[in-house]
Amino acid sequence: MTTSRIAARVRRIKPSPSTSAADRANELRRQGKSIVNLVVGEPDFDTPAHIRRAAADAMDRGATRYTLMAGTVELRQAIVAKLERENGLRYAMNEIIVTNGAKSAIYNALAITLEPGDEVIIPAPYWVSYPDMVLACEATPVTVACPEANGFKLTPAQLEAAITPRTRWLLINSPSNPTGASYTADEYRALAEVLARHPHVMVMTDDIYEHIRFDGQATPHLLAVAPALRERTLAINGVSKTYAMTGWRIGWAAGPSDLITAMDTLLSQSAGNCCSISQAGAAAALNGDQGFVTESVAVYKARRDRTLALVNAIPGLSCATPPGAFYLYINCSGLIGKSTPAGKTLNEDGDVVMYLLESAGVATVAGTAYGLSPYFRLSIATAIETLEEGCARIARAVAELR
Ligand code: PMP
């Protein structure tokens, strides 16, 4: 056997399961199958016109050169203003770095802090990339199962039990991908009490879905509830989901200046600044009219309500009402053990997802990818007709199980 020329830390990670599911759906589509794709986790709206215009203006006025590594002054000022206006948090410019999407902020924050063998606590279900990012840093993801009965949320007792002397980070994502679970101020307060006893643990809050909220509540920020954590918390966010700007690749981290400076150093040597034109667009998104946010959330909510009703009417499936984000994380325990018309037994959620894809042409992602089974995730960031067609197909396929 030849030794691999790919480093062990990279061989430990796998491609994103949602990308693989989308690839498989596209392959079947190419073969001529009719596929309802409910995999993708990105807004199906166009980026609002005033944002596109700001980017075009930036090109026209020559904002096409390198920017400061940490991001343009204009964009960082817009982020400072956003954090104060929307979250009640005060940051200085040198406590903010603009990154190539929130994804890059999370990865680079891990990369500058983790030593081999360090641990990162990740409540499950989790966004698929977290554990692999930790593995890529030669550290250990410590996943903690947060069952549906607890609203898919980490309890203080679970946090206390998961912390060891090697714990570096706790990763919190609220509202969450894939469940939409959102921590209340009281729940944050209780988690903060545990963290107060363990000053070596840092906290990363992934706030990317903060505005995709259906219950009329503002998403509380951990730091607004527990300001004492400020010196060990990194707040991650970006424009991808809120402003339908997934392709623009603008995210950021806000936190203590030593972390931000280390990220700046690593990124300056490995990636360079983010696209100057995208930065101009992102500044316009944060500073400009916020009407798009309210309008798109109303559309997501109508889709969520409709899809939830259709899914919950299918025997064997159930889904709790997600307060935020744009996914349904559907409990399929009622289908486990059943047989397909072809005589195959559905032993786990991966089998359910495969059956729905192959027999009904509906592409979803299995709960195994998110660390809590048996579930599958369906994205509601798609037209309501598509969601209705998908649910009708799922209902027919489920009715054929014995
Ligand atoms: N965090 C979560 C929980 C996400 O779902 C996503 C996008 N799928 C990201 C971060 C990454 O967002 P960005 O496009 O800003 O990199």
Write the layout of secondary structure elements.
Elements: H1 8-11, H2 17-30, E1 36-37, H3 49-60, H4 73-87, E2 96-99, H5 101-113, E3 119-124, H6 129-136, E4 140-145, H7 156-162, E5 167-173, H8 185-196, E6 202-206, H9 222-225, E7 233-238, E8 251-254, H10 257-270, H11 276-287, H12 291-312, E9 327-331, H13 349-360, E10 362-363, E11 365-366, E12 375-379, H14 384-399
Parallel strand pairs: 1-10, 3-4, 3-5, 5-6, 6-7
Antiparallel strand pairs: 2-8, 7-8, 9-12, 11-12
The chain binds 4'-deoxy-4'-aminopyridoxal-5'-phosphate.
Descriptive overview:
The chain is an alpha/beta fold and 402 residues long. The chain has two domains: 8-46 and 292-399, Aspartate Aminotransferase, domain 1 (Alpha-Beta Complex), CATH 3.90.1150.10; 50-287, Type I PLP-dependent aspartate aminotransferase-like (Major domain) (Aspartate Aminotransferase, domain 2). It has helices spanning 8-11, 17-30, 49-60, 73-87, 101-113, 129-136, 156-162, 185-196, 222-225, 257-270, 276-287, 291-312, 349-360, 384-399; strands at 36-37, 96-99, 119-124, 140-145, 167-173, 202-206, 233-238, 251-254, 327-331, 362-363, 365-366, 375-379. The protein has a seven-stranded mixed sheet with strand order 2-8-7-6-5-3-4, with helices on both faces. Strands 9-12-11 form a three-stranded antiparallel sheet. A two-stranded parallel ribbon has the order 1-10. β5, α8 and β6 (202-206) form a beta-alpha-beta unit. The longest helix is centred in the C-terminal third of the chain and has 22 residues, at 291-312. The mean pLDDT is 96. The structure holds 4'-deoxy-4'-aminopyridoxal-5'-phosphate (PMP). 4'-deoxy-4'-aminopyridoxal-5'-phosphate (PMP) binds at residues 41, 101-103, 127, 173, 177, 206, 208, 238, 240, 246, 251.
